[in-house]
Amino acid sequence: MVDNPSLYRDVLDTIYDGVYFLDRQRKIFFWNKGAERITGYRAADVMGRSCADDILCHVDKQGRHLCREGCPAADVLNDGQRREAEVYLLHKNGYRKPVRIRVAPIEDASGRLVGVMEIFSDDTSPESLRRRVALLEKLSALDPLTQLPNRRSMEATIASRLAETQRYEVTFGVLFIDIDHFKSVNDTHGHETGDHVLRIVAKTLARSLRPFDLSGRWGGEEFLAVILNVDAAHLGVVAERVRALIAETRIPLDEDYLRVSVSIGATLARPDDSPEALLNRADRLMYQCKMEGRNRVCLDNA
Which of 67, 106, 257, 285 could form a cystine bridge with 250, CB 3.0-4.6 A? Predict the structure, then answer.
């Protein structure tokens, strides 16, 4: 029984995490059920293909393509040392998903390095997401299309955070996010594709933030994010990560992919701000990005 390869496959198919094996040429020769669940790709979609083909399009928090530079699996193949990393993979449906990966060498009986094994875990806590969604549904605060908090919920959040800022001198940041050239997406590909773009951007946005930050749909193709416990420099880093991850999203469209980008106005709340003043400032910064060429972040450092 111990030498039965099918036993190992059956065991690996029962675990929750994704597992796949690569040979020395980085070709995939095993892909378990957990990998199918987390990525949306079935084994038949990936077996025999090289991870260097950018199947999962791993990027780090800065939006850097790891399949082109800094691939943990390639590094393990080079030196035989284990690696761990937090990355974002591209789900088959087109949105970015945070995962924690662990890569280990595979050796034959003589100790020769013959490949690597990668294990990856969904970095989103299902339980915390379920609790948040249940609460928002109870308050009728969800946007039905994107399943993000709606405008009314975001307005209440802004008002509450401003009160805390004025009372306790704790600050927060706001990202005002607008999808670039969204009208042309609807005009060229139809409103069904436009709705799909909104859902994909919403998922990527929500998964690019920390659990205690909040993102919502402001209206149309506009989104808002409230970022807690940040200074101007950190707010800029968060905004750039959101921009880069959305820009690296690929949305399946017929036999091709549709790419979208966003313009982001980023500003810190001030003690003398009203909700209107704060949101108008973020909105002006977003339009500044539009004037400067789109697909960028405009940060108010004042």
Answer: 257
Tell me, what DSSP letter sits at residue 162?
Answer: H
Helix axes 151-168 and 275-291, enclosed angle (nearest 10): 110
Residues annotated catalytic, as ranges: 221
Residue 262 and residue 242 in contact, taking contact as beta carbons nearer than 8 Å: yes
CA–CA separation, 153 and 140 (whole Å)? 9
pLDDT in tens, 81-120: 999 988 999 999 998 888 989 999 998 888 899 999 999 9
Per domain, the residue ranges of the chain are: 5-122, 126-299
Measure the CA angle with vertex 39, ends 256 and 58; round to 5°. Answer: 75
Going from the C-alpha of 87 to that of each of 48, 124, 136, 249, the distances in angstroms are: 23, 12, 28, 14
Which amino acid, one-letter code, is at 43? Answer: A
CATH topology for 126-299? Alpha-Beta Plaits (3.30.70)
Q: How far apart (Å, rounded) are the C-alpha atoms in residues 141 and 154?
A: 9
Structural contact between residues 96 and 88, judged by C-beta atoms closer than 8 angstroms: yes
User: How far apart, in whole angstroms, are the C-alpha atoms of residue 106 and residue 29?
Assistant: 12
What 3-state DSSP class applies to 225? strand
What pTM, to 2 d.p., does this model score? 0.70
Helix, strand, coil shares of the chain, percent, nearest 5, are: 40, 25, 30
5-122: what fold? Beta-Lactamase (3.30.450)
Phi/psi zone of residue 229: left (φ > 0), alpha (ψ -120 to 50 degrees), beta? left
> For the chain, what is the largest distance between any 2 Cα atoms, rounded to a whole number of angstroms?
71
Which pair of structure tokens corresponds to residue 191?
Answer: 């409103």
H or E stretch covering 22: strand 18-23
